[in-house]
Amino acid sequence: MIYQSDALTVTRLDGDIAELHFDLKGESVNKFNNATVGDLTAALDAIDTEQGLKGLLVTSGKPVFIVGADITEFTAMFGAGKDEILKFTAVNNGNFNRLQNLPFPTCVAINGYAMGGGLEVCLACDFRVMSDQAKIGLPETKLGILPSWGGTVRLPRLIGVDEAVTWITSGQEQAADAALKAGAVDAVAAHAELREVALSVLHSAVDGKLDYTTRREAKSSPLPMNDTEATMAFFTMKAMVQQQAGRNYPAPIKVVDVIEQARGKDLEGALAVEAEGFVELAMTPVAAALVGVFLGDQLLAKKAKGWEKQADRKVERAAVLGAGIMGGGIAYQSAYKGVPIRMKDINQEGLDLGLSEAGKLLSKRVNRGRMTPEKMAEVLNSIDPVLSYEGFDDVDIVVEAVVENAKVKHSVLAEVEQKVTDDTVLTSNTSTISITSLAEALKRPENFCGMHFFNPVHAMPLVEVIRGDKTSDTAIARTVAFARQMGKKPVVVRDCPGFLVNRVLFPYFDGFSKLVRDGADFQAVDKVMQRWGWPMGPAYLMDVVGIDTGVHAAGVMAEGFPDRMQLDFKTATEVMYENNRYGQKNGKGFYDHGTDKRGKPKKEASDTAYQLIAPVAGERREFEADDIIMRMMLPMATEMARCLEEDIVGTPAEADMALIYGLGFPPFRGGIFRWMDSVGMHTIAAASEKFSDLGKTYELTDGMRAKLADGATYY
């Protein structure tokens, strides 16, 4: 044994070959945390002093190779300032440079995921052999940063600038065949033969049959581009990347800048340019937000896995009541993810609609080459359309997805409870009706909870799992487990009108209604909020949600929270509803809706809509963009703060992820709590005072006032 630590070992093999083996104790994956980086330095010291070595094989003892840096360490490091961030880049860059400059050839066996720093250490090696089951990539731009251990330097010099820019700016994983074609790896081996092939390549280099010194020189030299080539190439790449990334994500365009600035430099000079670019991005609110989203997603997964472990059994068969668009979407998602499902409706037309919805979604996958026709048939055959409750005595969970009417739901839930076993879990896909009140119709309320999907089911990751007053942990655990089986992101919340997401969405819509009442152009509001980062503005969002659905839900919210959600004026949305303008579903709402030449939805401004809302809209006037933003966002922020203070949701991170996954809240802002932290509670308080005349939704909560007084933040 040449070296041993909790993160890695170095052993001597036959033929004077050393093996550097990453296997981080106590972790399911290898990652470059501070301890591993320090251990790698020590391992390289030991290798330097070992006599007679002729080559180095780099391997992993985990099912993945190395997933990259330890992102849990980023928040503190980013907040510590430029010197600490530069130290972070420098230490491992020193390691990788030493690895690249060893006095003998090196070969890495990539057995699984090699992402970020995991790929960068591979790039520092002379030869790369990849398992046919492995994937590689540099996903740092998804965190608002760029590779900081030579990724922007070595990759372009290995595979060319165009290909490297595509890899890094997209952050996409690359399969073995694509990596081989691009020249990022030298060979692809069957998984079981990976080590043997990698050792064979290394021995060929040791024996002088493979030249490794020329490879090193290429990675350490300027890019082979003259000024004219560079000017044309980088101009084109910047235009393409800027169009794809958009104005709110600076990392991809910075990647192109860094590669361009470093093109004429040697390895050390290019790494210095990369480090400066990394520091610049790491200190932005976007990086803090996107790292927060990553960590928030990990928290959701951890909490969901905790519930999953408590589940009394795995869901083997499910059922959905109501076979409309939503029911069909739920049936599709369950069947597609491998859980057979019965889909019940009261008439054949409903079943036909549900099957049609599932068929459309599956056909799209087949047409895009993501599924075979045989697999499509298999999935469709696992959806059992029924008009009766026959077979419901062998299902593990039922999702009720009938019309959003309390009386109807009471009746249906009471009826299905008699057709299932005593331990079947019943859930409701209601978006607004109290779970506790719906449970009043049941003999076994402990087996009942909410399971609120978001539309369209196949596209929206979030599922709210709602605990009623009498819901048992067993019901929650099985429902969370089923949501995860369906590929969803479950968040467990307590019961209240609107639960979590809709409860905070409708104050946002109320802010929109008050703006229109006060003379704002709804199209102007949409443009401001879309520019702020929302996928669509509030008027368009209401059209997509369905104005009839929105008006109904707004009534439920007003009844539940009359002190702040009961409006004392007729809204433009109510006018749309009264005139049968329901939005996208019937082609007319705030906008007129149709399809373009490619069949994709499009919207156009509607003169009729303006004429109809004129009696309830104030005299048209322009508003400052910042005022529009605060008038829209502050009601959502104060309501979410109330939800946290009332324990409707467990943590700020869960709340933020629910908005990102359920509403499309701008990820680069990190969620509502992350946004409040970034602008500061003093800014929120100033807006609250400025708009205090607009009602209680603009008032700070007790918890917000306490944070203001203490200078505290949510994170």
TrEMBL record:
Annotated 3-hydroxyacyl-CoA dehydrogenase C-terminal domain residues: 498-592
Reaction equation(s) it catalyzes: a (3S)-3-hydroxyacyl-CoA + NAD(+) = a 3-oxoacyl-CoA + NADH + H(+)
CC per GO annotation: fatty acid beta-oxidation multienzyme complex
Limits of the 3-hydroxyacyl-CoA dehydrogenase NAD binding domain: 318-496
Keywords recorded for this protein, A-Z: Fatty acid metabolism, Isomerase, Lipid degradation, Lipid metabolism, Lyase, Multifunctional enzyme, NAD, Oxidoreductase
Superkingdom of origin organism: Bacteria
Family that this chain belongs to: In the central section; belongs to the 3-hydroxyacyl-CoA dehydrogenase family.
Name of this protein: enoyl-CoA hydratase
